[in-house]
Structures are given as structure tokens and as C-alpha cells.
Specification:
By secondary structure, the chain is an alpha+beta fold. It is 31% helix and 29% strand.
């Protein structure tokens, strides 16, 4: 009987536990939310257009629905009378983007870069939270933009930092204000909010070097990377952001420049130039435009700005952005970015170490340990082939690179390589006997 009683007690406990689990609230994952589709004419009633006529301008912009159930935002931008913008926006209605991480717009553009805008119900009409919406001419795209990229602006100027309250969002809209007069057209199929973060780094994509080889338009870049012995580094874990000049970009250099740089005796100069096209970490176009400049592994500061309807990176124009690789991001550019000191005053090994540490320490302290480790790795790869570095120090760098690549922790990798660089620096500064 005692056994039966114990069994009933045990069974009753199981039932009670099961009941408590049934009534216990489980966390509910947020689902994708549709903000706008245009399958019926009634959808247009929720939208309105606002152009620079409100400020005396003469730009024209409006919207209509196609038979395919998409929205066309089109018109002509004019810069006369201090004008220069056209926009459409959803009339205020509670959207509540709580739990959402990004906006996803399926659209076909004209190659111009628009603003995607969010507003709260009580927000002044002239202000909005904005993020860049780049388009490719004549191509349908599903463009994902993190909510964290939306910054508060008014009249084209940044306002004091105030985080977006996703729960208060009541309107989504699109503005063209790229200071480029002429006709424009953007076709939109849908606008959605997603709980998923925008992930650029994907395991399915090849490495930066793999993608450059497969693309076919970067033969000179691949040859230069190989000659500089950097292919292994740029095939490593990263992440790196590579500003990739096309073959046409290299062809714009003075005749004979490439042949000269590919010679073994000019390897240090070639490394210097290639490092001027690499930024530590994964930097999307939206993030780059927010940063306004990036510091290359060579040490130069490259300006990044939106001007005359195009994105300018240094003296180059952006051709294609945000190409995902398994170890970073590729942005295609139409000019080779020559560092100011690349031909006359290349960095010494000690100077290279100092530069890497000066750049790496703030990155590490800001929490991007992975980017710091990548910066130190490419620096050590350059050091191990510099004859000015004492042989013992070069061997220690090689051992450290092997050790670091077997590490699973980016923090440990960074410290292993940092120790190797410190040792090389001490050896370089040691008085010669």
C-alpha cells in the first residue's frame, strides 16, 4: 500500500507539473509584420505626397498603383527656388514595431539613393528618422535596413541623438533629396518589419578572395593580392571590409604601374596600397555613410559621403555595395585608392606595428575584438615578409600566427598576435651592436 500511495503521490506531482506548464506563459517570438502592400486601389488612401512646394520649390513627385499591384513613386526633382526634395508617406496610423529589428523593402529603383523614413504620431512634420535606401537601376531587390540605422533628422540635418521608439512608430515614408535634378522612379511591392537582424556575414557565401575570383571583373586585384601574399589573410576569418577596385579602375593608373608593383622588389609598396583598400571589421554601406570616414589598415582616413546622387569613397565612386562574404563585406569602387605616402614614404616595420596597435586598441576596447584580431593578423602577415624585421622576430611572428589560427577565441587571438608584435617592436628598437 505504501508503494501505491507513493505512486499516486508521484503521479499527482507529474499532473500538477504538467498543468502548471500549460498555464505558464511561454515567450512568444515576434512575427514579421506587413506595413504596406498595394494589391488594391484602397491601399492608396493610406498614402500622401509632400514635395518641396511647401518651401517654394518646384519639384514634382507623386504615386500611383500599377496593374501588377505595386506602387510607383515618380516625378522630377528640381533644385530651383532652394528646392530639391519629393516624398511620399503613410498617413499616421499605429504601426507598433515593438520586437522588430529591421525594415525590409522590396523595390525596383533607378540607381538613385533614397531615404526610408519613420515617424511617430506626435512628431513634427519636418523631422523623421531616416536611413539610406540605395537602389540598383532596373533591378528588383529586397533591401533590409536595421532599425538601429535610423537617425533623427530635420531639414537634412542631424538632430541631437534621440533613440527611435519602435512602439511609437505611426508612419513610414520615402524621400528623394540627393541634390540631383532630373526624373526619378521607384517601384515598391511591399514594406515589412522583421524581428530578425540584418546579417551580412553568411556561411553560404565564399570568402572575399573566392568572390573576387568568381566575379571575373577583379583579375588585377586578385593578382595583386596574390603577389603581395595577402590572399591567405583575406581568406581568413576576418571580418574585413574590402573596397575592391575593378579591372577598369586599375587600368586608369599610369601605364606600367601595375607591372612595376607586381615585381618582388616592390612588394612592400604593393602591400601598402592594398592595405589602403581594407578596413577592419564588417562595415555596411549604411554604417559607412553614418561614419563619414573609415581608417584603412594602411593608416589613411578615407572620406565616405553622399554627393550628387552618388556615394563617394575617397576619390572613387561606389559601383556596388554590401556584397556579402563569409569573412566580411565587399564594396566595389571605380578608382584605385593610392595612399598619400605609398610611393615616397612607406611605413617602416616599427611604424607599421605602432599604427596597428594605435588602431587596434580602441577597436578592442570598444568591444569589436574580432575586428582587432583581424587587424593584427594582417599586420603580422606583412611583418613576417619584411627583411628589416630580425629573423628571430619573424620566426616568432610565424609561430604566433599558427598558434592564433588554432584559437577559437578572438580575444586570445588578438593577445597572441599583440605579444608577437610587441616582441618584434622591441627587437627593431634594440640598438645594433
Amino acid at each position: 500500500m505504501k508503494t501505491a500511495k507513493s505512486f499516486r503521490h508521484f503521479f499527482g506531482g507529474l499532473v500538477a507539473a504538467a498543468v502548471s506548464m500549460l498555464i505558464m506563459p511561454f515567450p512568444i517570438m515576434a512575427e514579421e509584420k506587413t506595413l504596406a502592400t498595394f494589391e488594391s486601389e484602397d491601399c492608396l488612401e493610406a498614402w500622401t505626397s509632400v514635395n518641396d512646394g511647401v518651401m517654394g520649390g518646384i519639384s514634382k513627385g507623386g504615386f500611383s498603383r500599377t496593374d501588377q499591384g505595386t506602387l510607383i513613386f515618380k516625378g522630377e526633382l528640381s533644385l530651383e527656388n532652394n528646392g530639391g526634395f519629393a516624398s511620399i508617406r503613410m498617413k499616421p496610423t499605429p504601426l507598433d514595431l515593438s520586437g522588430m529589428a529591421s525594415l525590409v523593402v522590396r523595390a525596383k529603383g533607378d540607381g538613385r539613393t533614397y531615404w526610408l523614413e519613420l515617424r511617430a504620431a506626435n512628431q513634427m512634420a519636418a523631422s523623421s528618422y531616416r536611413a539610406y535606401l540605395p537602389t540598383k537601376a532596373g533591378e528588383w531587390e529586397e533591401i533590409s535596413i536595421p532599425l538601429a540605422d535610423f537617425k533623427l533628422q530635420a531639414f537634412g540635418r542631424d538632430l541631437p541623438s534621440k533613440a527611435l521608439d519602435s512602439a511609437a512608430v505611426a508612419s513610414v515614408g520615402i524621400t528623394l533629396a540627393d541634390k540631383k535634378a532630373g526624373p526619378f522612379e521607384l517601384e515598391i511591392e511591399s514594406m515589412k518589419a522583421s524581428p530578425e537582424e540584418v546579417v551580412v556575414k553568411t556561411e553560404s557565401a565564399g570568402t572575399i578572395v573566392d568572390i573576387a575570383k568568381a566575379a571575373g571583373g577583379f583579375q588585377t586585384l586578385v593578382a595583386a593580392v596574390t603577389a603581395a601574399d595577402l590572399a591567405g589573410v583575406l581568406s581568413g576569418e576576418g571580418p574585413f571590409t574590402v573596397l575592391a577596385p575593378t579591372d577598369e579602375a586599375f587600368a586608369k593608373l599610369p601605364a606600367g604601374t601595375i607591372d612595376t608593383l607586381l615585381k618582388p622588389e616592390n612588394r612592400a609598396q604593393l602591400v601598402d596600397i592594398l592595405k589602403n583598400h581594407v578596413i577592419a571589421g564588417g562595415v555596411t554601406l549604411a554604417k559607412a555613410l553614418e561614419m563619414r570616414e573609415g581608417t584603412t589598415l594602411q593608416g589613411s582616413s578615407i572620406s565616405i559621403k553622399f554627393s550628387d546622387g552618388r556615394v563617394q569613397i575617397g576619390n572613387a565612386t561606389l559601383v556596388k555595395a554590401d556584397i556579402a562574404a563569409s569573412n566580411g563585406i565587399i564594396h566595389v569602387i571605380d578608382q584605385v585608392l593610392l595612399p598619400s605616402k605609398a610611393t615616397s614614404d612607406p611605413l617602416t616595420p616599427a611604424g607599421l606595428i605602432e599604427l596597428a596597435i594605435n588602431r587596434g586598441v580602441p577597436i578592442f576596447n570598444n568591444g569589436d575584438v574580432e575586428a582587432c584580431a583581424a587587424l593584427y593578423e594582417i599586420t603580422c602577415e606583412a611583418l613576417r615578409s619584411m627583411t628589416e624585421v630580425p629573423e628571430a622576430a619573424r620566426k616568432e611572428i610565424e609561430r604566433s600566427l599558427q598558434s592564433a589560427r588554432s584559437e577559437k577565441s578572438d580575444r586570445s587571438t588578438a593577445w597572441i598576435l599583440r605579444k608577437a608584435m610587441d616582441g618584434a617592436w622591441e627587437a627593431l628598437k634594440k640598438p645594433k651592436e
